[in-house]
Amino acid sequence: MVQAGGVAGDQLRSFIERIERLEEERKGIAEDIKEVYAGAKAVGFDTKIMRKVIAIRKMDQAERQEIESLLDVYLHAIEGGERPEPVSE
Amino acid sequence: MVQAGGVAGDQLRSFIERIERLEEERKGIAEDIKEVYAGAKAVGFDTKIMRKVIAIRKMDQAERQEIESLLDVYLHAIEGGERPEPVSE
Amino acid sequence: MVQAGGVAGDQLRSFIERIERLEEERKGIAEDIKEVYAGAKAVGFDTKIMRKVIAIRKMDQAERQEIESLLDVYLHAIEGGERPEPVSE
Amino acid sequence: MVQAGGVAGDQLRSFIERIERLEEERKGIAEDIKEVYAGAKAVGFDTKIMRKVIAIRKMDQAERQEIESLLDVYLHAIEGGERPEPVSE
DNA sequence: TATCACTGGAAAACTC
DNA sequence: GAGTTTTCCAGTGATA
Question: What NCBIfam families does the database record attribute to this sequence (chains A, B, C, D) (predicted)?
């Protein structure tokens, strides 16, 4: 055997290096974000409020997606004949 | 010493039993919820859709709370003099 | 047109509200449990171990129920006049 | 009155949108990482161990950087003509 | 039964 | 350095 690991070892190394590269990137982006916050703070904005605003916008977006997925489910149910219409009677 | 644990043991036992009782309750409620879904399904409703609706309503509520907390932070910031008004200039 | 929210709508609304109420309760209990853990931690207990203990007791209980139900089956078989085979193996 | 959304508003909006874009990117990378782990798992590697390996390599790297920076300081001191004390302790 | 999403706890990161 | 918030993963429970 040539070296500890052999082919499996090469494969493992490849996976790990890919992850490490991605984590580097992610770290870089995290720093960018931090810098933007710092810049905003430097010109007088309250970063705590900014974070809240961003959180709310994120929730909005998530909700919109949920509603769309609801629509999908609903249309699918109609096709399937689950319950004829929401309002019969 | 009378028995393994003594006073500390009694205390621990008490904590654990309280938790177990609460978990029983929680389990009971989970069963109730399941029953309600079953009842709804029995009269023809699509539980998948129901779950979506409930999830969306939950998100609405969470968002409303986030907005209120944003307001709190905002008012606090004004008092603190962070940034005079959102729109100066 | 009856309007969205006819009888079926009322029924659906009722189901959903019941579920939401139950989920509220469940959430409340989850908070209670957390508080008990916090209290235990405050007086020096290791909550991680406590969780293990509770998990084990739960398994024990499940086992006991298993045995009891086995016993029930066995006794019913006897009452029914069938001659149960002696449990071999 | 300039209207909510004057210059300060534009500036704020710009900050927030930049952050949101960066968070999108970060999210994408996080997903990539997850996929790599999934791929590794699929061919039989233990991701838990992989995480450990990566953590250790990160520590190693931090250590190496520590050493290099120490070396830098030392070399600069030499160039500057100061006579560094031999590293004692 | 097996996949699928979700909840809850543990760990990590960031802020102050 | 402490405290709070995000992030991550494992366990649980629902659905098909």
Answer: PRK13694.1
Of the candidates B47, A14, C12, which has an alpha carbon nearest to the alpha carbon of residue D45?
Answer: A14
pLDDT-based confidence at D3, cuts 50/70/90? low
Assigned domain for B51 exists: no
The answer to the question of residue B52 being in a domain is no
Same domain, A3 and A34: yes
The protein residue nearest nucleotide F9, judged by CA to C1', is D48
Amino acid at A8: A
| Total number of domains in chain A | 2
Residues B4 and B34 in one domain: yes
pTM tops 0.85, yes or no: no
Cβ neighbours of residue B51 closer than 8 Å, sequence gap 6 or more: none
Residue C5 lies in a domain: yes
Distance C78 CA to F13 C1' (A): 37
Q: Assign C87 a pLDDT band (cuts: 50, 70, 90).
A: low
Which residues from B are below 8 Å from A73, CB to CB?
46, 48-49, 52
Taking only the tens place, the pLDDT of each residue in B16-60 is 999 999 999 999 999 999 999 999 999 999 999 999 999 999 999
Query: DSSP per residue over chain B, as a string?
Result: --STTHHHHHHHHHHHHHHHHHHHHHHHHHHHHHHHHHHHHHTT--HHHHHHHHHHHHHHHHHHHHHHHHHHHHHHHHHHTSSS-S---
Residue A20 belongs to domain spanning: 1-45
Strand F at less than 7 A from CB of D49: no
Residue D51 maps to a domain: no
